[in-house]
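Researcher: We plan to redesign the surface later, but first we want a full-length starting point. Tokens attached.
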């Protein structure tokens, strides 16, 4: 929440420079948390055996109402790809920056 608060304050001043990192972090967290939760609900249902299908256990309604969150607000595969794209761009920009610094030092010498 602190990171979002910082972004919100910067946004009010017209600074959107931290938006890509914020988006990548939230996209990755959304994918991870919805996968873990839906897998947990399914595991709990299976652990209960046949009783896991009973409405009395509450698991069928949890499973039915939550599993779609993996797809809502962005499919998790797409969210992971967006996070990976940000990370690859960060790695690439660091390499390019290091190569430029190296070239400029070599040029100076």
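Model: Full-length starting sequence:
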């Amino acid at each position: 929440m602190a990171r979002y608060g910082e972004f919100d304050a910067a946004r009010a001043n017209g600074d959107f420079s931290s938006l890509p990192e914020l988006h990548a972090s939230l996209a990755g967290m959304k994918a991870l948390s919805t996968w873990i939760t839906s897998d947990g609900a399914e595991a709990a249902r299976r652990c209960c055996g046949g009783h896991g299908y009973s409405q009395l256990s509450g698991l069928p309604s949890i499973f039915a109402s939550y599993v779609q969150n993996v797809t809502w607000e962005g499919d998790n595969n797409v969210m992971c790809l967006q996070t990976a794209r940000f990370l690859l761009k960060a790695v690439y920009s660091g390499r390019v920056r290091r190569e430029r610094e190296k070239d400029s030092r070599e040029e100076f010498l």
